Amino acid sequence: MHLAALTLRDYRNYRILELEFPRGVIVLTGENGAGKSNLLEAIHYLSYLKSFRTSRDKEIVRFGAPYAVIDARFSDEQSHDFEVRLVLKDGKRFVRFNGDDVQKFQDYIGKLHSQFFFPGDLGIVTGDPALRREVLDLELLRLKPQLTKVMNHFRRAREQRNKLLKMIHPQPGVTRDNRELQQSFTAFSEQMVQSGAQLVRERLGITRVLDGLFRPLHRQLASEAGEQVTLDYFSQVTLDPPEGIAASYGEVLAAAAASESSLRYTSVGPHRDDMLFRLGDGRDLKRFGSQGQMRSAALAFRLALCELSRQRMKDDPILMLDDALSEMDDGRKGRLMELAGRYSQVFITSASAREVGQIKRAAGQVYRVANGRVEPY
Ligand SMILES: Nc1ncnc2c1ncn2[C@@H]1O[C@H](COP(=O)(O)OP(=O)(O)O)[C@@H](O)[C@H]1O
Ligand SMILES: [Mg+2]
C-alpha cells in the first residue's frame, strides 16, 4: 500500500498542502518545528483514526481555523485506489471511505496500514501494560474484525460482574446473602470466562506469531549487541494447553473469590494480562535492559507489526520513521535502511543534513519542509 496523494487543509501548521508521493523511500527534511512530524501524524491518523501525539482532536486544527480536512488517495499492490476524507471539527471527526460515510470504527480499521516509529517510542516496552494490550487488540481487530464482538462481550460481562461484586459485597469483606444476586454473578462470571478465554487465546496466538517475526528482525537490527529478546504473553491464567484456558480461568477466579470480596472488582483476566519483552535468560527487558536494548526492541517490534500486515493482509504497510535515525550509529542506520527498503513506501524525517546525505542515495525523493510548505529538494 502506498499514499499516492495527500491534501491537508488547516491541519496543524499547514494552511493548504497538496502533494503527490511516489513509492519507495521518501525523505522529509527541514528544521525543528517545520512540520515534518505533523505530516506523518496526518498519515498515521488516517489508518488509526487517532493521533500518536494527542487524544485531543482540537489540537490538530490549525490555530484559529474552524476545522481541519485531510484528503488522501491510497493505492494497494493490485493498484486498487482508496480515497479517504477526514474532517476534524469541534472535537468530532467525520470519515468518508470511497465516498461513503464511515459509522463504525470496526468497518474502517484494517483498511489502511501504517506503522510509525519515533525515538521516544519506548513506551511499547517500558510503558503501562494497557498500552501493549491495546496494540495487540488493535492488531487482532485488523486481522479479524469479527473479534469486536468477543471483546465487547468480555467487557460487558466484566462490567456486570464488577457491579454485582459491589452489590454482593456492599463493603470490603462484607457479604450479603442473596440468591438472586449470586445466580446473576455466576452467570456473568461464566460469560466472562468464555469470552475472556477466547480473547486470551487470540492474544496468545498473535503474540507467538509476532515473536517469530520479531526475533530475526531484532537480531538483524541489534547485531552487535548480541543479546536475544523474545516476546511472551503473560497471564495469571495457565496458557498451556490453549484448550484449557477457560477451565484455568475459572479456577483462578474461584481461587480469587476471597480477595475479590474485599477488592470488589475482577482481579484476573485478559484486562490484567501483559506482553513481555524478555531477555535471553527470561528477565524482563523493561526492568533490566539498557536504553539501547529497549530502543532496538521497540523498533524491531514495529517492524514485526509491518511484517504481520504484509503477510496476513497481503499488503505492505506504509512505514514512517520519524527522526528515528538520529540516535543510531552508522551501522544501525544502514541496517534499518536495508530493512525499511523492503516496503513499498517509507517516510523518513530528518533534521540533519549529514543524515540526509547518508540516506539520500536510497531515497526516491527528498522533500524540504519549511513553514508549512513541502517542496521537492
Ligand atoms: N494546531 C496547530 N496550528 C498551527 N500550528 C501548529 C498546531 N499544532 C502544532 N503546530 C506547529 O507545528 C510545529 C511543529 O511541527 P512538527 O511537525 O512537530 O515539526 P518537526 O518538523 O520538527 O517535526 C510547531 O511550530 C507548532 O507550533
Ligand atoms: Mg518532528
Can you give a write-up of this model?
This protein is α/β, with parallel strands linked by helices. It folds into two domains: 1-113 and 313-377, Rossmann fold; 119-309, RecF/RecN/SMC, N-terminal domain (Glutathione S-transferase Yfyf (Class Pi), Chain A, domain 2). It is 43% helix and 23% strand. The protein is built from twelve helices and 14 strands. A six-stranded antiparallel β-sheet has the order 2-1-4-5-6-7, with helices on one face. The protein has a six-stranded mixed β-sheet with strand order 8-11-12-3-13-14, sandwiched between helices. Strands 9-10 form a two-stranded antiparallel ribbon. Strand 11, helix 11 and strand 12 form a beta-alpha-beta unit. The longest helix has 43 residues, at 179-221. The chain is globular. It binds adenosine-5'-diphosphate and magnesium ion.
How would the blueprint of this fold be written?
Blueprint (H helix, E strand, L loop, with lengths): L1 E10 L2 E7 L3 E6 L6 H13 L18 E9 L5 E9 L2 E6 L2 E2 L3 H4 L5 E4 L5 H4 L2 H15 L3 H22 L10 H43 L7 E6 L10 H11 L1 H7 L10 E6 L5 H4 L2 H22 L5 E5 L7 H11 L4 E6 L2 H7 L5 E6 L2 E4 L1
Helix pairs in contact: 4-6, 5-6, 6-7, 6-10
